[in-house]
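Notes to self after the call with IL:
- keep both proteins in one doc
- input above output, always
- annotate only the second one for now

Protein 1:
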Amino acid sequence: MKPHVFRKGDWALLVEERGGYKTVARVGGGRIQTIRGFIDTDKLVGAPHGSEITTSLGVKFRALSATIFDVIENKFELRAQAIYPKDAVYIIKAIGLGPGFRVAEAGTGSGFLTAVLAWYVRPWGVVYSFDNRIEHMKVAVRNLGRIDLLNYVDLQVRDVVRTGFGSIRVDAVVLDMGDPWNALDRVSEALKPGGVVVIFATTVEHMAKSVEALRKRNYVNISIEEVLVRRWKSVPGELRPETFDVTHTGWIISARLV
């Protein structure tokens, strides 16, 4: 079986072989500075995934294919964040997201979920992301630009409750905002029949208002999910749950328009 190899422009996760340090680098981007010395990323072009690379200080790393979450963790300027990777993954599942999808998002924030959605709709899809605060958009533009996802995103400063989503027609809408129930009439204007709306609610009151609003409109197959992840230490002799972890973050409500 032919091994997967790195191409210029790929993202690589560099994991120290005898330590806990790791970082992310763009393959073919020249030398990068790390706390373990310089790494020449040009040497990874054409190298198989899992290859060994040595820093200028003689420290060995393994080069693995990076996920979108690896890239965000290392390259993003994250402000206040409600949606965590575990929630983002479930949102992808709730939508059934894949290449070519057209998705609208209300509540851009720092662009975390925007980036995840854009990563999965590539290379033919698009994410329309709306936020009513210009300072959020400025951060999102910087973040998405750092990882070359701006070509798959249409960012707009807009209050979707007051002015809607414009003339777009999309396969799915994600609402990560303070009053998502007030945006559902606008969602119905933008969403294709059979399309999916996903609401991220951080309080029971917001969850209840959102579900009630969905039931009053033409939505079916309403579901509420809470995603809990419990991490364990992977150190031999110390295999136990982590002492501190993020468990509850919110509820993911999904429904389909008929």
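Protein 2 (the one to annotate):
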Amino acid sequence: MTVDVVFILAGASLLLAVVLPVALSRAAVSAPIVLLVVGALIGLLPLPEGVELTPMANRSFVQHLTEFCVLFALMGVGLALDRPLDLRRLGAWRKWGATWRLLGIAMPLTIAAVAVLGWWAMGLGPAAAVLLGSALAPTDPVLASDVQVEGPTPADGAEQEEIDESDEVRFALTSEAGLNDGLAFPFVYAAIFLATLGPVTEWGLRWLAWDLVGKTLLGVLVGLVVGWVLAKVAFRAPRLSLRLAETGEPLLALAAVLLSYGVAELVGGYGFLAVFACAMTLRSAERGHDYHAHMHQTIERLERLFTLAVLLILGVAMTNGLLSTLTWPAVAVAFLLVFVVRPVTGYLALWSRHDTCRVGDHVLTRGERAATAFFGVRGVGSLFYLAYATGAADFGDSQVLWSTVAFTIVLSVLVHGVTATPVMRRLERARGL
């Protein structure tokens, strides 16, 4: 493959990434589906001798690429959410009731169910089974844009009005995706400790106190502090030249990603949670200001670029041996996760004996609860966790893990990508929107 052909393929792929989100906005086919297919077709072309385009052969590169992709997505999600979360007010916590249910009930049950299926059906060892459950449990903030809130929009120089919060389904899925990518990390560490330190009795208490509670709180705290400082500078700096909200410089969002993530990781907290908390803190400052829309648009473009690279690489790898170790039990686990485990655990989390379920100040109908439970999109975050963990410990079954996770992501992209537009449109009609 010549350099000229590479430039042509890269340019054509980037053009697709720019055009597809708008062209397919009302169609029952998502942009990730098309990009995966394009990547698979590129993978059928002859590659230079000795070049391997699989995650296993390029683990470190895949880890960092997916890491940046998730970071940009988390910042975008945090800036998009208009519903405030004041940690000092119980009423604000109640408005996030659906999110807490999905995080506290659906996510742990999903981890446990997938781990058991991996151990029982696929014959994985305990550490590998826990890693599979932890990697596949979090919903993805990257590939779930079709079922998430759209975010702030420019208001032609004036301060924008509050975004309509009537779509509880989109809010629940967006906020869940923003938080559970960080909250899955303790369970990934549990898998790593099982593989390196042995039985739970050797490390369980330390994991509970530090990896589950301590690092979570530290990550959130760092995000709040960094977001507060940046918001002070952007909106209330004494010098006009430092007041970036007035000059309209949107790259503050990129600085916020790097600063919050870097500081959190430096002090030992969870960087993913720090980025989301930082974005939420920035969004809470001058909530109606047009500057948030500009930052969100910048981050969205960066996220789209990195998502393009990840999906193309995944597509190429699919036709270059990534799925060669896929087994029928692994296929069954993937189908069970998408069609049974997530929908059931999600519905249990939002369960109510009545036709409607009151979550804080909001009400979810039976159909909205079913949709929220079903759209647990798997994606880029799963690839990051798997790359991170397999670089930290030897799980013995890493090739099977890679093929299972990759197949699950492809299945999720296809199923959720095809169903998202018609289902969300039907819910909007039911609400009279």
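Annotation: The beta strands are 356-359, 362-365. The radius of gyration is 21 Å.
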